[in-house]
Amino acid sequence: MAALGVSFFDRPADRVARDLLGSHLVARTPRGTRRLIVTETEAYLGAHDLACHGSRGMTARNATMFGPPGRWYVYLCYGLHWMLNIVTGPEGRPAAVLLRGAGGAVGPGRLTRALGIDRQLDGATASRRAGLWFEPSGLVVPRRRIDRTPRIGIGYAGEWADKPLRFVLDAAWLSELTERASRMDRPPPRAKTAR
Fold first, then answer.
1. Closest listed residue to residue 182, CA positions, set 170, 190, 174, 172
2. Domains of the chain (ranges, CATH numbers)
3. Who wins on pLDDT, 43 or 182?
4. Tens digits of per-residue pLDDT, 47-96?
5. At 141, is the secondary structure helix, strand, or coil?
6. Are 42 and 85 in contact (CB under 8 A)?
7. Spacing of C-alpha 18 from chain mean position
8. What's the DSSP call for residue 127?
9. DSSP strand pairing (32-44 vs 96-102)
10. In whole angstroms, how far apart are CA 29 and each of 26, 37, 76, 90, 116?
11. CB–CB of 69/82 below 8 Å?
């Protein structure tokens, strides 16, 4: 399966955030390659978005956000949790999508912990070479199955705190799809033979 390329990420962060839902986040780990369905994202739109790290200009911490699209932006939150973001839009404009959930990992800190992600990935292109990338899953997500809410933990951002820039895959629908897929993978029941 081909990895999602730079052109996918060279778009506004809110579109990328929505379109990543249902795709696979693929990680090469010591235990093998893992494919996790992306279930939750948040968009950070650029310098005008007061919740965005780039709203106060470039720093050593956020410099990756100003770079080319399709690069990983990884930072430490509250000194505890690594946050995994993918840079979007044109170079020079600080915009990114935060990955809040994939597979069974719900919450950005749990996701990075599950995959062993830390600052070493910051600035790397999302690719097989980096060991972390996105692939299409073949899953078509109807818009009605995406919940949009305000982002989490950004009360400081004034009017931007209430913008519906968090995208969540409908859990009931995803559960139904997972159950259907598992039924298809099961062997057919064996016919009973008369004795």
1. 174
2. 6-182 (3.10.300.10)
3. 43
4. 998 889 889 888 888 999 999 999 999 999 877 899 999 999 999 999 99
5. coil
6. no
7. 10
8. B
9. antiparallel
10. 10, 16, 21, 30, 8
11. no
